[in-house]
Amino acid sequence: MRAFFIGRFQPYHLGHHEVLREIFSEVEEVVIGIGSAQESHTIENPFTAGERVMMVDRAVGELMAEVGERKVYIIPLEDVYRNSLWVSHVVSMTPYFNVVYSNNPLVIRLFREAGFEVRKTKLFNRVSYQGTEIRRRMICGERWEDLVPRPVVEVIEGIDGVKRLRDIAGTDV
Amino acid sequence: MRAFFIGRFQPYHLGHHEVLREIFSEVEEVVIGIGSAQESHTIENPFTAGERVMMVDRAVGELMAEVGERKVYIIPLEDVYRNSLWVSHVVSMTPYFNVVYSNNPLVIRLFREAGFEVRKTKLFNRVSYQGTEIRRRMICGERWEDLVPRPVVEVIEGIDGVKRLRDIAGTDV
Amino acid sequence: MRAFFIGRFQPYHLGHHEVLREIFSEVEEVVIGIGSAQESHTIENPFTAGERVMMVDRAVGELMAEVGERKVYIIPLEDVYRNSLWVSHVVSMTPYFNVVYSNNPLVIRLFREAGFEVRKTKLFNRVSYQGTEIRRRMICGERWEDLVPRPVVEVIEGIDGVKRLRDIAGTDV
Amino acid sequence: MRAFFIGRFQPYHLGHHEVLREIFSEVEEVVIGIGSAQESHTIENPFTAGERVMMVDRAVGELMAEVGERKVYIIPLEDVYRNSLWVSHVVSMTPYFNVVYSNNPLVIRLFREAGFEVRKTKLFNRVSYQGTEIRRRMICGERWEDLVPRPVVEVIEGIDGVKRLRDIAGTDV
Amino acid sequence: MRAFFIGRFQPYHLGHHEVLREIFSEVEEVVIGIGSAQESHTIENPFTAGERVMMVDRAVGELMAEVGERKVYIIPLEDVYRNSLWVSHVVSMTPYFNVVYSNNPLVIRLFREAGFEVRKTKLFNRVSYQGTEIRRRMICGERWEDLVPRPVVEVIEGIDGVKRLRDIAGTDV
Amino acid sequence: MRAFFIGRFQPYHLGHHEVLREIFSEVEEVVIGIGSAQESHTIENPFTAGERVMMVDRAVGELMAEVGERKVYIIPLEDVYRNSLWVSHVVSMTPYFNVVYSNNPLVIRLFREAGFEVRKTKLFNRVSYQGTEIRRRMICGERWEDLVPRPVVEVIEGIDGVKRLRDIAGTDV
């Protein structure tokens, strides 16, 4: 069985990590879609798709060291800006999958209309484990490193990602 | 060191296989771009990006059984239809890479203009190891299975790919 | 004489109905444009263009039972995201028309700049006869059926439209 | 039961007419899609979508005078340039339909992959009843009027359509 | 040496004028990019790219009467909606330049990531010399003419620009 | 009076030069549109819009040294891929113009349909003064410098343009 899971991963954080751990406990293979892949260098979407591929890849590596080897496909997905085409877009860009994991009402609705089985994921500490909160902390110079897996911290430091976000936000100007 | 290698992989064939074997002999990590990812269901581009991800993944698996484990990223890349933006597009969608392998004059030129190191790949039996020839054989009902790695045959059979190509070509109508 | 009238019809409501009744009293033929045709499955635009074609068609049928047979063309119009091209876009997608009916300042301005006669429509009970209010009632489980023509209720029930809107809004999750 | 039938209608000709007559003998309602709606003013696609709506509408009127009143929806459909999204695009832009009529291998394949019933249409005098041949005759100043229904001749004359085609082809320059 | 300077110029005002005077004191040639060139007829972007070319051209003419003849290229730049492609887009559309002048954090960041020298411009009376304030005054019927160079007033009057903005804002309806 | 003249200028050659000389003899101001501005690095369109702006600017400079100072606007124009929108696109991107000079049947037709005065330009030695022939000579290593104005040779040499074209064509590989 193969699952589909999508996020924007701006950045990948411990909430994503818990969901993936949950998915790994139920299915063998996972396609991870990187949503809004065309976006970067904004306050909402500071990181490129390629940088987010790295984050997801490193985080999945950590997870597999813990739960055992899995087959994972990491696929950047550009927006198509038309909800009625979105499921077909995802399907065409990804290896075949049987089940979708999501907590997003629109994602759930669109996949169910298309006849897919959708499983709702659990929520983990939604206050902190959110991209918005993490990016806010990065901009304000607060501590964000505890909210993401260790390998993601390394990816972000490797690209000097906090500096980029602060530059764009005008904080460092 | 990380290399970038791009193809349309319609389908992945033994020519691609030889180039990858060559790249694996020189660098540790490879980003494989799946070009014209948005195309499918045409005579020139019968397979979806997701199906081509499967072909490349299975073929790379075979290769790694032979040459040892490597880090490989397989990234679908939609066309941007503007040569002057193409390298920036590739860079934004992929993990960082240091060197490009290609035999395509346009790809070579664009990456060199952008300051990348580009290495030309060797050519292997160009008459048969070509997507055009393989698709022609599929349409005409000739033997094509010898021109692609064994796992790619399985992927194509699993999606009944020859039937799709013949349908589109009007051969089965 | 042929008139042009455009709306998003999310959903078609009694305000639209009154405007059409007014137009039918002045001209013989009407082109009804379905704006933002590419949008669907959002809180602002829950229904597809095709579903909105059905709403308009059924409502116009009711109206013609009342005022007599008219020639009506119902044309979905995708956004072009450039105001300076919009009139040309509309003109290319629709049968020729001589006069535009609208109350939207931008629509009026764009058609007048292009040399069209534009007639302002009357306003009918703008508090309730608004898409925003109707969608709000649908989401909150309040009574909305009195604000749209009877055949439109049937179209929306036929596609289980309120459920879709509530799903997307997260009300049913 | 409602059928879907698509053509570019550059222009609508007697071949289309025969297919529609055939469809009307089997189903009560028809959605007629006007393909490549965004195209106009080229040798392959001289007429705008709006002009083609008029041709189809008039021709259907003639047909209904003959076979009795039917419910027909005429919907311009812009290209999406991605085969994997095309069926979803059509579905979103049109009233719900149960069966597709087509002789085009790609259209047949795409709708069948999406789970639709597709019925192949008969072919009627394919040598003359073709858009290419009719446009060639228009450009060369030969007799084309016998190849299209009478009301279509009137629409084309009303917009001075042959002059446009000859202008674009450079014949009149 | 050739500089690049970009603005939306909705409209061109005395703040832009001061920055250009500053740039002219340092470099001989300037490429002036007209950003969001595809936008017009909105409250944020009332003027077309062509109208803004006229404003910039006339204002630059006034400036050169003061500081002497310079080589200036005025280039409309449509948005590409992808920050990672934007610098490549600008570079492809403009004559070669060596240095960028900007106060916009995103513009500064993107050009620096691409390896360009970027110089921050001074700020001049930011309260009044802002497009937002000038458009507000136009809509409210207040005095705006002191905030733009005299030739820009003439361009805006020549196209009856205040009337357009008020029409769109619904103020004149 | 202000004229509009459009070309792709791949590269600007003596045929364009003669047409401009003709236009300058009749009108005072000229808007020169650089068509297919988004194209570059292909055999048909080797040069970027910015490089073509330079060619046109330098060539116009030479011409004005001969016929006297004129007001000229050089505007890159991206394709919109829809003939029915093209005139509106051009109008929105350029300063106002009263008359169009062209020998292209489609350009003539589209502007005339939109109500513009169009004047046909003379033809000058069409065998050699063609972009296709000049690019062929560049690729084949033949003499092309006599077919373009001297300043255009300098622009092309300054960007090593022949090398780029030969690289793309695969001649130098």
UniProtKB/TrEMBL annotation, chains A, B, C, D, E, F:
Keywords: ATP-binding, Cytoplasm, NAD, Nucleotide-binding, Nucleotidyltransferase, Pyridine nucleotide biosynthesis, Transferase
One Gene Ontology CC term in the entry: cytoplasm
Pathway: Cofactor biosynthesis; NAD(+) biosynthesis; NAD(+) from nicotinamide D-ribonucleotide: step 1/1
Recorded superkingdom: Archaea
Reaction equation(s) it catalyzes: beta-nicotinamide D-ribonucleotide + ATP + H(+) = diphosphate + NAD(+)
Domain Cytidyltransferase-like stretches: 4-137
This enzyme's EC code(s): 2.7.7.1
Pfam families: CTP_transf_like
Biological process, per Gene Ontology: NAD+ biosynthetic process
Subcellular location: Cytoplasm
Presence of keyword Ubl conjugation: no
UniProt cross-references to NCBIfam families, sorted A to Z: arch_NMN_Atrans (TIGR01527), cyt_tran_rel (TIGR00125), PRK01153.1 (NF002243)
Annotated family: Belongs to the archaeal NMN adenylyltransferase family.
The name this protein goes by in its record: Nicotinamide-nucleotide adenylyltransferase
Taxonomic lineage of the native organism: Archaea, Methanobacteriati, Methanobacteriota, Archaeoglobi, Archaeoglobales
